[in-house]
Specification:
- The protein is an alpha/beta fold.
- The protein has one domain.
- It is 26% helix and 28% strand.
- The protein is built from 6 helices and 10 strands, in the order αβββαβαβββααβββα.
- Strands 1-2-3-4-7-8-9-10-6-5 form a 10-stranded mixed β-sheet.
- β3, α2 and β4 form a beta-alpha-beta unit.
- It is globular.
Length: 263
């Protein structure tokens, strides 16, 4: 019986037209990763991991990074016999507030528990993709876990048009010289509390690909390239968004563009 995340992944693959096999047997190998996906540029192994709520609920502040690092360790064992093939760990979480999978949390688990972000989150609003520099202990580096080609965040996706409108108003006020504080967006939300929330592209499943620049074998360049997908990779000394799908590109170009924050 498929898990929720496996059902989502198979739906994603079917929608993308990819050929796939679930847990195929490979002569001479004991481990069987969850999926073998084949595209024109080659085949790739995928291991699916779904996060549920921890048995002991954390109190106060908490971090998802240790749980992600644990999943990377489990995937490493599953991929050990497939070092000469591209291998991807797929993570999904939609059932636990304690296991939210943001790009910065997963990338931090991959490349370093400490990081610096640009643009500065405390400065003026700048509608650009975030750029990260990581420091400290990394689960993936030049010598560790080089079999993992990428980590994919398998996500439910839709555009909340109310929040897009609020962001647009924040930008407009900033351009008029109005001071923007941490409370401003909630003040605008209160002003629009009587408006019905509308969603664009509801019930979408998409992949956010965090590429491993140290991988022995990269992810084939025709996989996980759907209209709502994102790819992140290292550019120079920074880790940042490098590609978005066709529908996300269209959302950026419409009269009221969807900010990168909500892509």
């Amino acid at each position: 019986m498929l898990t929720h995340s496996e059902e989502l992944f198979e739906r994603y693959l079917t929608d993308s037209g990819a050929e796939f096999a679930r847990e195929p047997e490979v002569p001479g190998k004991a481990k069987r990763p969850d999926y073998l996906v084949t595209g024109a540029a080659g085949a790739c192994w995928f291991e699916i991991k779904e996060f549920l709520s921890p048995k002991v609920k954390p109190r106060g502040g908490f971090s998802t990074v240790p749980a992600i690092v644990e999943m990377v360790g489990r995937a490493r064992k599953k991929f050990k016999e497939y070092r000469d093939d591209p291998c991807v760990l797929v993570l999904h979480s939609c059932k636990s507030l304690y296991r939210t999978l943001s790009v910065h949390a997963v990338a931090s688990a991959m490349f370093g528990e400490k990081f610096r972000t640009r643009p500065d989150r405390t400065g003026p609003i700048i509608d650009l993709p975030e750029r990260f520099q990581f420091f400290g202990t990394a689960s993936l580096n030049r010598t560790t876990n080089t079999t993992i080609s990428a980590i994919v965040l398998l996500q439910h996706y839709q555009v909340n048009e109310l929040w897009v409108g609020i962001y647009d108003e924040l930008i407009a006020r900033q351009q008029r010289g109005v001071e923007i504080t941490a409370r401003t967006q909630f003040e605008i939300l209160a002003e629009r509390s009587d408006k019905e929330i509308q969603y664009s592209h509801p019930d979408t499943v998409r992949a956010v690909v965090l590429r491993n620049p140290h991988a022995r074998r990269p992810l084939p360049n025709d996989l996980c390239m759907g209209p709502f997908d994102q790819h992140w990779d290292r550019v120079g000394s920074e880790y940042t968004l490098t590609w978005i799908g066709s529908t996300l590109t269209a959302l950026r170009r419409r009269p009221t563009p969807v900010p990168f924050l909500y892509l």
